[in-house]
Amino acid sequence: SETEFYERYRPYTYDLIMMDMRLKSDREGLRLLRRIQAEDATQAVIMISAYGDTDAVLDSAESGALMFLHKQEVTGEMLPRLVEAILRQADARKELATIKNRVRNALPLALIGEHSTLQEALDTVRHNTHDKQTPILLSGEPGCGHAPVAGWLHEHLHAGLAPLVSCGPSNFMHGNITNALLGNASAGAHGKGLLEKANHGSIWIDWLDRLPDSAIEEICQSLSNPLLTRYDPPVELSVRMIAGCSPENSLRLANFIADRFGLTKVITISLPPLRERTADIPLLANTLLQRENNVSAMSVRSISPEALNALMAYRWPGNLDEFEATVRYALVQAWLDGDRQIKPHHLPDGLGTRSERKPRDYKAVLAYSELKMIDDALRANPDASKAALARMLGYTDRFAFSRRARKALSEHPELG
């Protein structure tokens, strides 16, 4: 019965739940299944029913069941094999989520280095390891690594497979903010809001300061409510907010959020621009090079002192985003040359010193780097298939060349 379910169920406790769709008079099982998925999206569930119509099967799948079984078709011989198969599938899904967590859990470049601000940031994290509720504010210029830091913080401060949901101002600019956060009850499984998806985990909101105060206040109010009332009985809601903002708005936004949550303060972490920590660039470049070599077949092992000097002399208006794109570009260029070391001529054209040239538009640099990388790869490997070139350059599919090239040229026609 539903009553027994509410008495016994605890998230992250059971390997497998088998549930009847019809418990008493209606499809109560679907309602309970949605509640399970709201609290633990990795829970394996088999739905059983004597009414195996198409709608029942689709509703079960859309609500999160891994399998639908018709009672008349289940035999004592079949059931153990089905259960074993579902458990293997559930284990594979959890293992994949764990692997993704481990990849994200590597210390992001934005937190690597000896800059005093970074040490303060790491100290702040260490002192708040057991605090899973207080909002966190990441302050920094565009390109300083807000999103990777948010992902690392989430994994560092949450145990297990807690969900992380990412969003930004575009998620709240149109329509009802409450619906975006809390969901639409009339839409069933498709109506999950951002907070339901993030329950028992974190929600990452990039550039929160670009929203009007009224929208930020509504977001804070929704997060302050401990119950998700679209379910009967309501589901307990526990979500930490991690938000990004620009440095000039961080103090005002921190005070605004603290006031709405009834706190004396929120956790604020400042991410310095790369131009203020040029001494960290050799460490950052070699760390990035090592990580790229670990996940690719390229064997470029080092960066020459002259190339490092060029990297340290540049002002990096695009911060870490531009820096990472530049190092990856140089890595591919060195690999195409058969060189085991990145040298100055492998860097994008025109990478100069502070005194030699003004800061460039980093988006144009990224576009140029990508176009040149594609062009050089095509020239160096004229007989290679698109699939081989895609793997060579790290694209996910063979159609990526034309899509990325068209995007770069449409945004920067001067590069054509």
Characterise the protein shown here:
It is a single chain. The chain is of the alpha/beta class. The chain folds into three domains: 2-100, Rossmann fold, CATH 3.40.50.2300; 106-272, P-loop containing nucleotide triphosphate hydrolases (Rossmann fold, 3-Layer(aba) Sandwich), CATH 3.40.50; 275-415, Helicase, Ruva Protein, domain 3 (Orthogonal Bundle). Helix content is 47%, strand content 11%. It contains 16 helices and twelve strands. The protein has helices at residues 2-8, 28-39, 54-63, 78-105, 116-127, 146-157, 177-182, 194-197, 213-224, 250-261, 281-295, 305-313, 319-336, 362-380, 386-393, 400-411; strands at residues 17-20, 45-49, 67-70, 136-139, 164-167, 201-205, 227-228, 235-236, 239-245, 267-270, 302-303, 341-342. A five-stranded parallel sheet has the order 5-6-9-4-10, sandwiched between helices. Helix 4 packs across helix 6, helix 11 crosses helix 13 (319-336) and helix 14 runs antiparallel to helix 16 (400-411). The radius of gyration is 25 Å and the shape is globular. It starts with a helix and ends in a 5-residue tail after the last helix.
In the CATH hierarchy, the architecture of the largest domain is: 3-Layer(aba) Sandwich
The secondary structure category is alpha/beta
Q: Count the DSSP helices.
A: 16
CATH class of the largest domain: Alpha Beta
**Mind describing the biggest β-sheet?**
5 strands, parallel
Can you count the beta strands? 12
Cα-atom radius of gyration: 25 Å
Oligomeric status: single chain
Q: What is the end-to-end distance?
A: 66 Å
Shape descriptor = globular
